[in-house]
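=== RUN LOG ===
request id: a7f3
mode: sequence -> structure
chains: 1
length: 331
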Amino acid sequence: MIMSLKNAQYNTIIRQYDLRQLDNNYRLSKRLEEIYAVIPEYKALDEKIPVISATQARTAVTTGCFNPDKLHQELALIEEQKRQLLVRSGYQSDYLAPLYRCKDCKDTGYIDNKKCHCFKQAIVDLVYSQSNIKARLAKENFKHFNIDWYSEQFDKKLGISPRKQMEGILKTCKAFIRNFDKKPGNILLYGNTGVGKTFLSNCIAKELLDTAHTVIYLTAFQLIDILETNTFGHADADPQDANMFDYIFDCDLIIIDDLGTEMNNSFVTSQLFLCINERILHNKSTIISTNLSLEDLKDRYSERFFSRIISDYQIFPIIGEDIRVKKAISS
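=== RESULT ===
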């Protein structure tokens, strides 16, 4: 599944790829100019290539005999000489290889006529205002995650201190990221307001976005609004939200923040179950954060919803003081 795009939206993304390819070619041409200036022998070898090819072509025309193996051997020898020149001059052997931001699709946006993962992410960025989360990720990432905000005092409920507990959660979340492509998984973070649930979710999101995975961040309220729009339709509905419905089930990771703040009824419960169940069935990862306790989740949502969470999610209680308050007091 992939969301539909209006022509203007599609053309916008294609223009981005055109500009990317132009930039790649420009940067490669500047590298070649540099090498020609630093290593004149390299330029001389490049100039030999068309001469050799033309000589072989004339021989084929005049004698009726063409030896492709000989041509390939001569060209391969020149390529090896060029590679050695680069290395001897202190350059990487692939310094003049084509430059791509996405090596999978070679910056075309497609692999075997199917949209590349980088194209899918471009759709997410364009159709849904993901820039909102990306702006936060400059500050909310693992480099800025300060474990010192969590107390070292022993907590009877946890059986360890909040800091020790968070250290374990961080270790598990980083393993989740490392194994993301091999082993999709799901995480539930629950605890009081301000203990770092959303911050930690954003840390994970940044790591995956930086490795060209498709990530959608939605509050529970936003998610339900999109699901309702798809089911019932609204006269004033944003067409972008309608397009997002399919992608909710197809993106590599969806983050559902503040579960429990949405208005709850039987429709909401069934749609939430549909969302998490479909993603589990299709091996797509989900992260849910909530202020609700496990008991509250069980009471608020259906038995099958709660059962899915218990059986298919890694569940982490986060206990501590409101970090935002602590930061405000200390500043």
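=== NOTES ===
Strands lie at 110-111, 114-115, 186-190, 215-219, 253-259, 285-290, 314-317.
Residues 7-111 form one domain.
=== END ===
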